Amino acid sequence: MANIEESGGDRKNIAVDLNLVPFIDLMSVCIIFLLITAVWTQISMIQLGSSLYSKKTDAEALKEPPPYAGIPFRVNVMETGFEVLIGKERITIPLQGKKYNEKALLKQIKKVKDIYPEKKDAIVAARDRVKYEYIISAMDALLNGGFPETTIATGEML
Predict the structure, then answer these.
(1) How far is it, in rounded angstroms, from Cα 44 to Cα 19?
(2) Does the predicted TM-score (pTM) go above 0.70?
């Protein structure tokens, strides 16, 4: 136990015992609470990931995949401009001065839509240093070009 001893000229010695048991109980409860909530956070993350990539149901497995579904189509938003990847073809759209060329991007996206009219999905990938407004402009171009199913990826794919 902790105690306080005070000695003075005219005063008597005061000895106070501080009861540390409630403090230790509180700390043990806090530690247990933090450990339990950390486990719940991991479980929710695992459930989220498994629900996105879970096995297909029998009805979904019987459906035929749409034509051109396996052809990857991605728009990279980089510091140097846009880059359109369709299959193994890579089309670079450089900056015009300090601005991104959104009209040229939309033109390339429409060319892809003409080649693959039934394809609806696309991926927008951007690095951390790219401003958010340029990512949104790439997403708008994909939407205007006929690709409503847009996914955003991190810069790890670049």
Answers:
(1) 40
(2) no
Position 67 scores a pLDDT of: 59
- For residue 125, give the nearest of 145, 154, 96 by alpha carbon: 154
pLDDT of 44 strictly over 90: no
> With contact defined as beta carbons under 8 Å apart, do 31 and 46 qualify?
no
Residue ranges per structural domain of the chain: 2-52, 73-157
- C-alpha span between 89 and 126 (Å, rounded): 19
CA distance 109 to 125: 15
CATH class of 73-157: alpha beta
The token pair that represents 40 in the structure block: 């719940």
Question: Euclidean distance between the first and final Cα of the chain, in Å?
Answer: 61
At residue 17, the 3 state secondary structure works out as strand
Q: In three state form, how does the secondary structure of 50-96 look?
A: HHHCCCCCHHHHHCCCCCCCCCCEEEEEECCEEEEEECCEEEEEECE
The rounded distance, in Å, linking the Cα atoms of 116 and 120 is 9
Residue labelled with tokens 């540390």: 20
Contact (Cβ atoms closer than 8 angstroms) between residue 104 and residue 137: no
